[in-house]
Write a structure and sequence with these properties.
The complex is a heterodimer of chains A (about 300) and B (about 550). Chain A has about 300 residues and is an alpha/beta fold. Chain A has eleven helices and 13 strands. In chain A, the strands form three sheets. Chain A has a six-stranded mixed β-sheet with strand order 5-6-7-3-8-9, sandwiched between helices. The chains are: A alpha/beta (about 300), B mainly alpha (about 550).
Chain lengths: ~300, ~550
């Protein structure tokens, strides 16, 4: 299977600010790939470089087998994009814009599919874009993208303006796209979205990819959260490899490095277990930990602190 | 219902500082901060314009005799009267008021329009006003702060002119009259644009409406002045720009004329505030109707999109051009009669080429104005590219299968075609107007069509500069493009008064256009002006293909 997107060491500077600092991203054809990072990490910049809207200062990028800058026009007829902040032409109706976007891509929507999506997302296509809320503007762009026959769908924070019902509709649609074999790249800081949709995840921070893999891969590196009620009291220092332990009489809540999970369970069993809940870390926890650790290692922080 | 005032009173006691005007001070400060560069530039341009004219006249024509001979050399010819207004007397002050009074008032009016719309409908359309109004800010505070900024700007103008002109040796009373004439014209258009901002739901349309009124005011005055007693001279009296003349600064000031712009200012401001009370945030006077649920077959690609976005503005311009140039064309007949009837003038004009020559000079000036304004239209159409890009609406288009060059070209085509169309309309309307009034409609229309189109290569150069600026310096392109327009206006309308040397005047492409009708047709300038325009566009598009978007 070929890769739909392959970026190596992408660099982009805006004046003195570095937006991308050697970013890697690989999206296999046919997968749903989530591109995660906090605000300002460089998600949108990466997408704009991949769309040929920005010129990369360094690195290599191959998009659908072509160069995103040089072959932009030809490549764009094979992809559909939903920007993070959707602005529409105020005097045009949603329906007109949906049709226009298809034609600008050089194609034509399947009329049934267009109608289906409009009903699914509950959009009034005869209203002027001026009167749409943020969520409705987003729906216009989503419908335009989903109704297309593009082989790659690029969504930049697609659900930021949608209500939970519409978010669910969006997730259903993306899952459906996965089954027809379309490739989806989805940037987000909403981790539940990535958990619900993504086959693989790339986490970026300060313009660099810090982690990439399936969610299972990422969880392997991390801790399990344990909630237990025991027969007797237990001392925290008798448990190696445990973090953030909170002990309240016979109740224990802690995080455990997966490498020592067996050992911990053995010790808990020795004390006697009444109830036990183990759960994998949510992406949130994964994410938070990642940044905490990074911040501790960040040389700039070390430099700043002594000068105070 | 009787309880309502009591409830109202309790409310205002319970929530002190929640009146309709709460927050006006803070918003005014914010507006002044946002305009800290633009506002001084406008004020500077107007004040320096008037002052440098006064200085030039005082320095070049020291004696009464030299001024008298200047005046009799034909300053009262209809073409100049059309452009600048009537000359009242031959003092330095009168000459200054003549050369820059109407135009100073025009600039003050433009300044007021841009200021007011930017801080009212502009913020409202961009959604910023929603955020502002959600704070402890009264319903009328944004409107009031825009009003305050515009009044402050015009008051500064008046104060500076009252200070500067007497320093240059002009009489204090006349200086005050000229300053007030300019400042109150600014106030009139403050009121007009406050109303315009209530009527339309888009800032672009509001600006267009107010500038349209200004255009009508300019041409009403121009036609009223140029046709003299034989024509509809009452036109000078009906709208603001004419009042700068009827006030007669430096020529026995008629102070009561100031009551007219002041009344217009108060009346229109009152209207704007009562309209604002009645409407919802974000709404115009007319509600948005539902539109097509699907796109028409014609809306196919970037060119159709550019046309769709730009045609309403172009249609407005075209309608304005058709009416105004037809009227100005018809007025040319009155000019001929005026010259024929006055003995002394006839002699003077026969010397410089007779009645035909004077009508031709008038028509040439009219076409120059048509060319300059058409260039301004072209620039605004090109800058639509920049507006689309900064509003992030270029992004989805370019992320579809549309190349940079095609995207750029789509709006450039509209800009050039629109500029050409306006010049065709200017020529044909003038020719028809004149021909139907004076006879020989067919011949005059053909002649004037040629004269109108003769301006196209020069206008195209200005439009090309805007295209080049958009490609090369996207952040500064608005300033560069409008500076190009301003420079052309400055050189071709005021250049000779400053006695600028020829090579300076040659900077403007309009200097190289043959004087038509009447002058000799020389082909060379058309060719090289067109080449420059095309080269600018090509370079601009090439730069657009290489740079970052957004």
């Amino acid at each position: 299977m070929t890769n739909a997107i392959e970026a190596r060491g992408l660099r982009k500077r805006f004046g003195k600010a570095t937006a991308l600092d050697g970013l890697d991203l690989t999206v296999a054809a046919g997968e749903v790939h989530a591109f995660l990072g906090p605000n300002g990490a460089g998600k949108t910049t990466t997408i704009r470089v991949l769309l040929g809207l920005l010129r990369r200062d360094g690195g290599d990028a191959v998009l659908l087998g072509g160069d995103p800058w040089r072959d932009a026009t030809a490549l764009h007829s094979r992809l559909a994009y939903v920007p993070g902040d959707v602005t529409l032409w105020p005097a045009m109706t949603g329906g007109e814009i949906i049709d226009l976007m298809a034609r600008l891509r050089g194609g034509q929507h399947d009329k049934t599919r267009r109608q289906e999506l409009i009903e699914r997302f509950d959009l009034d296509p005869s209203k002027k874009a001026r009167s749409y809320s943020k969520g409705n503007r987003q729906k216009v762009a989503l419908i335009a993208a989903l109704a297309s026959d593009a082989e790659l769908l690029v969504f930049d924070e697609p659900t930021s303006g949608l209500d939970p019902l519409m978010e669910a509709a969006f997730q259903e649609c993306v899952n459906a796209e996965r089954h027809v074999g379309r490739t989806v790249l989805l940037s987000s800081h909403i981790l539940a979205e990535a958990e619900a949709l993504a086959d693989r995840v790339t986490i970026i921070r300060a313009g660099r990819s810090v982690e990439t893999g399936t969610l299972a891969d990422l969880r392997h590196l991390t801790r399990t959260t344990i909630d237990a009620e025991l027969d007797g009291p237990i001392a925290a220092d008798s448990l190696p490899g445990v973090h953030d332990a909170v002990i309240d009489g016979t109740k224990l809540r802690c995080e455990v490095d997966n490498a020592v999970l067996t050992e911990i369970l053995r010790r808990l069993a020795a004390t006697g277990v009444r109830t036990l809940t183990c759960r994998p870390p949510t992406l949130e926890e994964l994410f938070l930990r990642h940044y905490e650790d990074q911040d501790h290692d960040d040389p700039e922080r070390v430099r700043v602190t002594p000068s105070r | 219902m009787t309880a309502a005032p009591a409830v109202e009173a309790t409310r205002s006691r319970a929530f002190p500082g929640t009146g309709a005007l709460t927050g006006t001070g803070a918003l005014t400060k914010l507006a002044l901060r946002r305009d800290r560069i633009m506002l001084p530039v406008w004020v500077y341009v107007v004040v320096i314009g008037v002052a440098s004219n006064a200085y030039t006249f005082a320095k070049l024509y020291k004696t009464a005799a030299s001024r008298e001979s200047l005046v009799s050399s034909g300053l009262n010819n209809p073409a100049l009267v059309f452009l600048y207004g009537r000359l009242n007397g031959d003092s330095v002050g009168a000459l200054t008021a003549w050369r820059y009074g109407v135009w100073g008032a025009l600039f003050a009016a433009l300044m007021s329009v841009f200021l007011v719309v930017r801080h009212t409908r502009g913020d409202e359309e961009a959604g910023r006003l929603e955020l502002v109004r959600s704070a402890s800010v009264g319903r009328q505070a944004p409107l009031t702060s825009a009003l305050a900024v515009a009044v402050l700007a015009n008051a500064t103008l008046v104060a500076l002119l009252c200070l500067v002109l007497p320093v240059l040796g002009l009489p204090a009373a006349g200086s005050a009259a000229l300053a007030l004439a300019i400042g109150t014209c600014g106030l009139s258009f403050t009121g007009v644009s406050l109303v315009a901002a209530q009527l339309t739901s888009g800032a672009r349309a509001a600006r267009g409406l107010a500038v349209g009124v200004l255009g009508v005011a300019f041409l009403a005055r121009a036609v009223g002045d140029a046709t003299g007693a034989s024509g509809p001279s009452w036109l000078t009296w009906v709208l603001p720009l004419g009042w700068t003349e009827t006030l007669r600064p430096f020529a026995g000031e008629r102070w009561w004329v100031l009551a007219l712009p002041v009344a217009l200012f108060f009346g229109s401001t009152w209207l704007a505030f009562s309209l604002a009370r009645r409407r919802d945030l974000g709404a115009g006077l007319l509600p948005d109707r539902p539109g097509r649920p699907t796109a028409s077959a014609a809306l196919r690609g970037p060119f159709a999109l550019a046309w769709r976005l730009q045609w309403p503005a172009l249609a407005g311009w075209a309608a304005g051009y058709a009416v105004l140039f037809a009227v100005c064309g018809a007025a040319a007949k009155g000019i001929g009669q005026l010259v024929g009837s006055s003995g002394g003038l006839t002699k003077e004009f026969t010397r410089i080429g007779g009645q035909t020559a004077i009508i031709n000079a008038y028509l040439t000036a009219l076409m120059l104005l048509g060319g300059l304004v058409a260039a301004a239209y072209g620039v605004s159409a090109v800058l639509r590219l920049h507006a689309e890009e900064t509003a992030d609406r270029a992004e989805p288009v370019l992320a579809a299968s549309v190349g940079r060059a095609r995207f750029g070209l789509s709006h450039l085509v509209v800009a050039f075609a629109g500029t050409a169309a306006l010049l065709v309309i200017a020529g044909v309307a003038t020719g028809l107007g004149y021909g139907l009034a004076a006879g020989g409609a067919g011949r005059e229309t053909a002649t004037m069509l040629g004269a109108g189109l003769a301006q196209l290569p020069a206008a195209a150069v200005i439009v090309g500069v805007a295209a080049l600026a958009y490609g090369v310096v996207p952040d500064g392109c608005v300033a560069v493009a409008w500076t190009a327009v301003g420079l052309a206006v400055l050189l071709n309308i005021f250049g000779q008064a400053f006695q600028l040397s020829h090579w300076v005047l040659d900077i403007s492409p309009f200097t190289h256009v043959p004087k038509l009708p009447g002058g000799a047709v020389v082909g060379a300038p058309f060719v090289w002006l067109s080449v420059i325009a095309l080269a600018c566009c090509a370079a601009g598009l090439a730069a657009l293909r290489r740079r970052d978007i957004g």
